[in-house]
Amino acid sequence: MVKVSILGSTGVIGKNVAFTLARADTVDEIVLFAREGSIEKAKGESFDMYDALAAEDIDCRLTPSTNFEDIKNSNIVLISAGTPRKEGMTRMDLAIPNAEIVRNYAEKIAIYAPDSIILIATNPVDVMTTIALEASGFKKSKVIGIGNHLDSLRLKAYFANQIDINSSEVHTRVIGEHGDHMVPLLSSTTIGGIPLKYFVQSVDMDIPRLINRLRKAGNTIISKKGATEYGPAFAISNIISTIITDSHKILTVSSYLNGEIAGVQGVSLGVPVVLSKKGVAMIVPIHMNDYEENKFKDAAEIVRRATEEVKNNLNY
């Protein structure tokens, strides 16, 4: 039996992940965990989802709950709870208030679901991944942040749309911070198997404009509709499905580093990893040009400083 628990299930991201996972029909039970004041909303969400799932003959058990006992035996516990980002806010603006929430939930997961994998969606996700890792006491392979998976999907779509080709022909990746200091790996990007640096010689492609659009993507969506919703939910569901199906795909998620990439240690950042039912099976070594490596190291220092500031405020 495959069981996923979502802490923060009544939020925009949490409820969308729950419905997306349920529709995928690969999970037997989803626990919609909520605070006492939000339990009726969680129940309402479950009723609404059941109606939709009946139309597709999907039998997935939805369990609204405020009791941590109900997350026992979860394969994956998603933490999506926290203060949502509003227009003009950076992900780092959320760090201190959200860290207390993540720390508390990670401690509870360690008690009630010690064999689970923790997936972090709460922003700033790289900082929160380290907070959850230390609070839970889990092995680093079992605490994962959503990292740059969504950023990588966005860049893939931008390239495909720019030159009007199927997105399956684009292979690209974004690493580093899930935020302003993300690092697109243009040096290893290929389109139809052709390295990007050769492809752009014969195609009109404004790469700086696309990268600028990528960095502003979240704020652009928030300014127009109030929150990012479908993109993050599908990216998170994709990560969860990759883990529970043990498919060993390489996705770019936030993982705690001990020197595996560019010698960076003691910080969680978005890097390509092989995901399995055990969590991070391997951090994939990557080649970067000098510019990309320097930017990656810059991102590491920025996230490291932010993480230390947060930990000091939590009296770690």
Helix- and strand-based class? alpha/beta
What is the quaternary state of this protein?
single chain
Counting DSSP E segments of at least 2 residues, the number of strands comes to 14
Helix percentage: 40-55%
Cα radius of gyration in angstroms: 19 Å
What's the total helix number? 9
How would the global form be characterised? globular
Biggest sheet overview: 6 strands, parallel
Distance between the termini: 37 Å
**Average pLDDT figure:** 94
> Uncertain runs with pLDDT below 50, 5 residues or more?
none
Question: Describe it for me?
Answer:
There is one protein chain. With 316 residues, the protein is an alpha/beta fold. Helices cover 43% and strands 20% of the residues. It is built from nine helices and 14 strands. It has helices at 12-24, 39-54, 95-112, 125-136, 149-163, 196-199, 207-225, 230-244, 290-313; strands at 3-7, 29-33, 61-65, 76-79, 117-120, 143-145, 170-171, 174-176, 182-184, 190-191, 194-195, 250-258, 265-276, 279-283. The strands form four sheets. The chain has a six-stranded parallel sheet with strand order 3-2-1-4-5-6, with helices on both faces. Strand 2, helix 2 and strand 3 (61-65) form a beta-alpha-beta unit. Helix 1 (12-24) runs parallel beside helix 2 and helix 3 (95-112) packs parallel to helix 4. It is globular. The two termini are 37 Å apart. The model has no long low-confidence stretch (mean pLDDT 94).
SSE blueprint:
Blueprint: E1 3-7, H1 12-24, E2 29-33, H2 39-54, E3 61-65, E4 76-79, H3 95-112, E5 117-120, H4 125-136, E6 143-145, H5 149-163, E7 170-171, E8 174-176, E9 182-184, E10 190-191, E11 194-195, H6 196-199, H7 207-225, H8 230-244, E12 250-258, E13 265-276, E14 279-283, H9 290-313
Parallel strand pairs: 1-2, 1-4, 2-3, 4-5, 5-6
Antiparallel strand pairs: 7-10, 8-9, 10-11, 12-13, 13-14
Helix pairs in contact: 1-2, 1-8, 3-4, 4-9, 5-7
